[in-house]
Design a protein that fits this description.
The chain is mostly beta strands and about 190 residues long. It is built from no helices and 18 strands.
Length: about 190
């Protein structure tokens, strides 16, 4: 229901709440946000076009505990249903909680390319219209990441599969043979 990662809130992000159905009404008088030992002011901002993801905008202080209490009826969805009482508790991160991945790439393709890294359900992509021999992903949660490079031959910004009827070949994909481990406060390099 949120972007908390094992109870941690990224200090450079904002708290995001995800809902199964689009939210059409929010009663902020039924919400209480505490950061450290203080109640803090906040605003709600729709994060997607459907209203299924909302951002809680407030000043995030690194290395601070916080929680959000949502009383019954704080959120009303498209179908007129409201939430039960729920609370979210977190600890904000610090820069040292994250790692970085630095990829040094080989000979350049003559097409744009996409570098994709994946950790479980989290996918991060970077699109390059011109060759870059070094690709850097910062602020990655510790864990194991797979790496994929897609050569974007048709220059549409995404992977295009093959098509038997038109005899179109799929775009070339290159993967590293094994996942790369990312540790906190450490830069992992792959060549």
């Amino acid at each position: 229901f949120s972007n908390l990662h094992s109870g941690k809130l990224n200090h450079s992000d904002t708290l995001k709440l995800n809902f199964l159905a689009p939210v059409t009404g929010i009663d902020t008088s039924k919400l209480l946000l505490v950061s450290g030992e203080d109640t803090v002011g906040f605003s709600m901002e729709k994060h997607d076009s459907l209203g299924r993801e909302w951002s809680v905008i407030f000043d995030i202080v690194p290395e601070t505990e916080g929680y959000l209490i949502c009383d019954s009826g704080a959120f009303i969805n498209l179908f007129g249903h409201s939430n039960d009482s729920v609370s979210f508790k977190w600890q904000t991160t610090k820069e040292e909680d994250f790692g970085a991945l630095i990829l040094t790439l080989g000979p350049p393709p003559s097409y744009p390319f996409i570098v994709e890294i994946k950790n479980g359900g989290e996918v991060f992509e970077k699109y390059f219209e011109a060759w870059s021999d070094t690709v850097i992903f910062n602020q990655l949660w510790p864990g194991s990441y797979t790496v994929k490079l897609i050569v974007d031959k048709n220059k549409d910004g995404k992977y295009t599969t093959g098509d038997f009827e038109t005899q179109r070949q799929p775009e070339p994909v290159f993967t590293l043979p094994r996942p790369i481990s990312i540790s906190p406060n450490f830069e992992s390099r792959s060549y």
